[in-house]
């Protein structure tokens, strides 16, 4: 049987992409990551050309959090591994669970330490894998959920690696005792109100006593589910590309012509492309009935987590809920750039720009400003006869309803000058200045 250090080294050797890849350890200070720090120290001695570091995320949820951080710092100094601490900012009043917030914050902070081809090392082990499979069963997950965690997975431009996934926690604890290692104990790990703690403390010990190989069996089942998921993606790749539009929306009419099983699979693939949690079977049914099959004159909207599924001109779109900024407004200084809220890009009125809509220069005393709220505004596009409510013009210019409060409107005093990148109003066209809107990708 391989030792813990040998298991760690073999996985790292198999996952290294190129000689310049760095190893970044997520170090909580608990037993698992403490053992991995020791393994990383041994590995660095054998591979001194590799750059390594350990990153500890301070969540601030325990009175002992400062102590844990300093312990991690001390252990890294002893191992001669560079140590970095990051501080999470969690909202205890949020509807999202603290556990989920902490996980999201942790990975977001860890990602700041990663470059292309780096390996992010996390210390999940075989017992953690069994917990994940059992939680997936509790939620009624399909093969993708039951695939649980892989030894390696894509993480932005880096790779997330779990070297201990084949090892039981018992093996890690034996190793720690043999090496006389200390580690921290998070008191919240004893709270069985959390599902994982309930499984770890009450369920898995009983299962392991009855079936000692159950962790290995769960790992094997997860790997088989993962392989099936990969096979399905490969088989349906051509069909997925046939329903996906150039702007990453989906052709609703084409989806209607597919079987329910294939349609649901392609919708899940669409969510996965955006890194979103998978919609459940009930939610997939609602997408089909209430969005895809809504009446032609409807403006359907289905909220799923942090996004909404919308339909516009026979296409489905995934829209971030936080993008709208209807009440925001700001003045613009000519030849300077103005950052818009909520990641909507930036705008400017410039005499030097070679992109954007041509507008006349503001006259002396005219207030130049930008707003998003189209309510009550009237505009007269230069190429049209007569003025119309901006709401009607948005429809004519085929701007989806959810983008109408995300489209910057250039104003001189109280008159509409230009709208987004769509049109300039009569009386305001010119040749010396441009109103430009650069959107974030």
What would CATH call the architecture of the largest domain?
3-Layer(aba) Sandwich
Rg to the nearest angstrom? 27 Å
Beta-strand share of residues: 15-25%
**Lateral strand order in the biggest sheet:** 3-2-1-4-6-5
Low-confidence stretches: none
Explained architecture:
It is a single chain. By secondary structure, the protein is α+β, with helices and mostly antiparallel strands. It has three domains: 4-218, Rossmann fold; 244-320, Chorismate Mutase Domain, subunit A, CATH 1.20.59.20; 329-438, no CATH class. It is 38% helix and 19% strand. It has 13 helices and 21 strands. The chain has helices spanning 4-15, 31-46, 65-79, 98-111, 126-139, 143-146, 169-178, 195-210, 214-243, 252-256, 260-273, 281-292, 390-396; strands spanning 23-26, 52-58, 83-87, 119-121, 152-155, 158-161, 250-251, 301-304, 307-312, 315-320, 329-331, 338-339, 346-350, 357-359, 368-371, 378-379, 388-389, 409-412, 415-419, 423-424, 433-438. Strands 3-2-1-4-6-5 form a six-stranded mixed sheet, with helices on both faces. α2 (31-46) packs parallel to α3 (65-79) and α5 (126-139) crosses α9 (214-243). The longest helix has 30 residues, at 214-243. The protein is globular and about 85 Å long. The mean pLDDT is 90.
């Amino acid at each position: 049987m391989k030792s813990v250090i040998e298991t760690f080294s073999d996985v790292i050797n198999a996952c290294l992409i190129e000689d310049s890849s760095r190893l970044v350890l997520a170090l909580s200070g608990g037993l698992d990551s403490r053992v991995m720090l020791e393994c990383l120290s041994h590995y660095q001695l054998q591979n001194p050309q590799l750059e390594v570091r350990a990153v500890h995320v301070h969540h601030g949820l325990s009175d002992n959090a400062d102590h844990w951080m300093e312990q991690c710092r001390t252990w890294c100094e002893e191992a001669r591994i560079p140590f970095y601490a990051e501080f999470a900012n969690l909202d205890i009043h949020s509807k999202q669970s603290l556990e989920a917030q902490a996980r999201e914050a942790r990975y977001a902070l860890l990602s700041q330490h990663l470059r292309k081809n780096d390996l992010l090392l996390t210390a999940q082990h075989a017992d953690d894998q069994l917990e994940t499979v059992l939680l997936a069963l509790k939620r009624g997950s399909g093969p993708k959920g039951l695939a649980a965690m892989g030894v390696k997975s894509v993480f932005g431009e880096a790779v997330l690696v779990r070297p201990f996934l084949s090892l039981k926690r018992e093996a890690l604890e034996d190793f720690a005792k043999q090496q006389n290692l200390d580690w921290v104990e998070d008191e919240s790990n004893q709270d069985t109100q959390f599902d994982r703690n309930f499984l770890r403390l009450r369920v898995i010990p009983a299962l392991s006593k009855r079936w000692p190989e159950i962790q290995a069996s769960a790992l094997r089942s997860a790997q088989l589910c993962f392989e099936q998921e990969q096979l399905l993606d490969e088989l349906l790749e051509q069909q997925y590309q046939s329903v996906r539009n150039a702007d990453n929306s989906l052709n609703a009419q084409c989806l209607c012509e597919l079987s329910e099983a294939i349609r649901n699979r392609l919708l899940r693939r669409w969510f996965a492309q955006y890194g979103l949690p998978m919609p459940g079977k009930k939610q997939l049914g609602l997408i089909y009935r209430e969005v895809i099959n809504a009446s032609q004159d409807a403006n359907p909207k289905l909220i799923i987590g942090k996004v909404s599924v919308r339909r516009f001109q026979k296409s489905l779109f995934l829209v971030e809920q936080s993008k709208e900024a209807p009440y925001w407004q700001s003045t613009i200084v000519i030849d300077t750039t103005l950052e818009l809220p909520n990641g909507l890009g930036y705008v400017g009125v410039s005499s030097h720009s070679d992109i954007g809509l041509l507008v006349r220069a503001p006259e002396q005393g005219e207030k130049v400003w930008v707003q998003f709220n189209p309510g009550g505004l009237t505009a007269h596009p230069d190429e049209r006869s007569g003025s119309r409510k901006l709401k009607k013009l948005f429809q004519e210019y085929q701007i989806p309803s959810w983008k109408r409060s995300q489209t910057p409107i250039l104003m001189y005093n109280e008159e509409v000058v230009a709208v987004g990148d769509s049109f300039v109003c009569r009386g305001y066209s010119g040749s010396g200045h441009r109103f430009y809107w650069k959107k974030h990708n």
